[in-house]
Amino acid sequence: MKSKVADRIATSVFVALALIIVIIMAGLLFFILSRGVPDISWRFLTTESSTVSAGGGIRDQLFNSFYVLFITMLITVPLGVLGGIYMAEYAKQNKVTSFIRSCIELLASLPSIVVGMFGLLVFVNAMGWGYSILGGALALTIFNIPVMVRVSEDAIRAVPREQKEASLALGISHWHSIKTVLIPGAFPGILTGTILASGRVFGEAAALLFTAGLSTPGLDYGNWNPFSETSPLNLFRPAETLAVHIWAVNTNGIMPDVERIADGSSAVLVICVLMFNLLARWAGKLVHRKITASR
């Protein structure tokens, strides 16, 4: 009798906590979207921002956010997946591996502001790049690699060992088994982790304040020469992202319509992150269905 009562109490507590979390998240989303969505328009998304006059948009900040995200994931995903393969398949269970795992967990727990200060010291000052897209992307890579390593390692370990043993029993080499059996089996998990990490990168501001800067030079979207100063593809130009723009507008904005810009920018950021999460779920299910032939 006592155990049944304890079970009911525990169930009620967990359900109540889950409802509280859902209500808080729904209220937060409703507050941001109800204030910001009415301000979103095609002109708002495709107009250059202004620091003094009303009517500015977020064209450059939106492009910078996606460009920094692309460069960051271009560096992070290969390194993270290779690190996960090493930790799951090659690393021996000894003190060295334990030390590496502790370092990965330490890096994953670092506040992004600390990573930003490190990026300021190394990429901005020591390397002499100044505020740049490449410096920002490398700083974001530092605290995303541990996540990708752990996600890749867990996804590879989740593949049934019988599949790997069966491939090895056929005389296939270890590396070939990894390429043809383990990575395809772990691909849904790796893809989901990659897209979720993308959402984290897209909404990051603290690390980019010190590495990518708070401004964007005049860009010519007809100039695709990556070595030109006015090219949007130039990796060594400052780039204010959308998350940094929201912080800057709310703290130092003097435009007459500063509230409209902040609300609209916040809504666009939240919608993009939501799309990343929904895309992760959809892509993970789709790939899993194709690989396992399940419905």
TrEMBL record:
GO terms for biological process: phosphate ion transmembrane transport. InterPro entries: MetI-like, MetI-like_sf, Phosphate_PstA. One of its GO terms (molecular function) is phosphate transmembrane transporter activity. Keywords: Cell membrane, Membrane, Transmembrane, Transmembrane helix, Transport. SUPFAM superfamilies: MetI-like. GO terms for cellular component: plasma membrane. Residues 62-280 form the ABC transmembrane type-1 domain. It is a multi-pass membrane protein. The chain crosses the membrane at residues 12-33, 66-87, 99-123, 129-149, 181-202, 261-280. It is found in: Cell membrane. It holds the Pfam family BPD_transp_1. NCBIfam families: 3a0107s02c. Belongs to the binding-protein-dependent transport system permease family. CysTW subfamily. This is Phosphate transport system permease protein PstA. The gene is pstA.
